[in-house]
């Protein structure tokens, strides 16, 4: 399911896995690898295009960590723009405009997954004002 999400697709509700295979998973709490764990495999016919949320009242929709997940351009929330300008969050804070960091992927470093951020997401009504002020 997570792999499809990173490709901009979601598994349809109530779909059963096309195939179940054994795989290895890492348990962070116990700090060990667990073998022979079942992994559900879904086909593309069992998925739908990701329907991004809509920005309302000047607020950018975020995930539980306060970011916007932009693994593909189709995942950009409706009524928002992705601005790849460094330090844009300070400009938005000064203007009182809501912005969220854009999470575009993960990088492997030292046996850990490190999030990769590329720019910020703001509501489209504030996009021109923010770029002018920047």
TrEMBL record:
Pfam families: BHD_3. It is found in: Nucleus. One of its GO terms (biological process) is nucleotide-excision repair. InterPro entries: BHD_2, DNA_repair_Rad4, Rad4_beta-hairpin_dom3, Rad4_BHD3_sf. It comes from the Eukaryota. Coiled coil: none annotated. SMART domains: BHD_2 (SM01031), BHD_3 (SM01032). Residues 1-53, 60-134 form the Rad4 beta-hairpin domain. GO terms for molecular function: damaged DNA binding; single-stranded DNA binding. This is DNA repair protein complementing XP-C cells homolog. It comes from Culex pipiens (House mosquito). The lineage of its organism: Eukaryota, Metazoa, Ecdysozoa, Arthropoda, Hexapoda.
């Amino acid at each position: 399911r997570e792999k499809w999400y990173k490709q901009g697709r979601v598994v349809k509700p109530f779909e059963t896995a096309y195939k179940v295979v054994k795989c290895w998973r890492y348990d962070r709490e116990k700090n060990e690898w667990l073998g022979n764990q079942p992994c559900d495999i879904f086909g593309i016919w069992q998925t739908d295009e990701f329907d991004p949320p809509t920005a309302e009242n000047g607020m950018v929709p975020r995930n539980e960590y306060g970011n916007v997940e932009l693994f593909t351009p189709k995942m950009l929330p409706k009524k928002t723009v992705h601005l790849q300008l460094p330090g844009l969050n300070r400009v938005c804070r000064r203007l009182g405009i809501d912005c969220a960091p854009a999470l575009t992927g993960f990088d492997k470093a030292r046996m850990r997954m490190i999030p990769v951020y590329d720019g910020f997401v703001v509501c489209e009504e504030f996009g021109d004002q923010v770029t002018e002020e920047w």
